Amino acid sequence: MATVVECPTCGTLVEWQEASRWRPFCSERCKLIDLGDWAAERHRIAGEPADELAADTPPPPKPY
Ligand SMILES: [Zn+2]
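Above: query sequence and zinc ion SMILES. Below: predicted holo structure tokens.
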């Protein structure tokens, strides 16, 4: 009985197995779209004024 997840990008059901290379995404395209959105969001935040950031604030943890 296979575990099935929804593609975070388009909602397509994806079987969680070795053959589903891009899980939890249904395809490479959806994975790239999701990563692109994440990168864009990060870029937007990084582009805001950093007045409230103290100089001694440690760098944020890496997402992975
Ligand atoms: Zn998808």
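The pocket of zinc ion is lined by residues 7, 9-10, 12, 25-27, 30 (CB under 6 Å).
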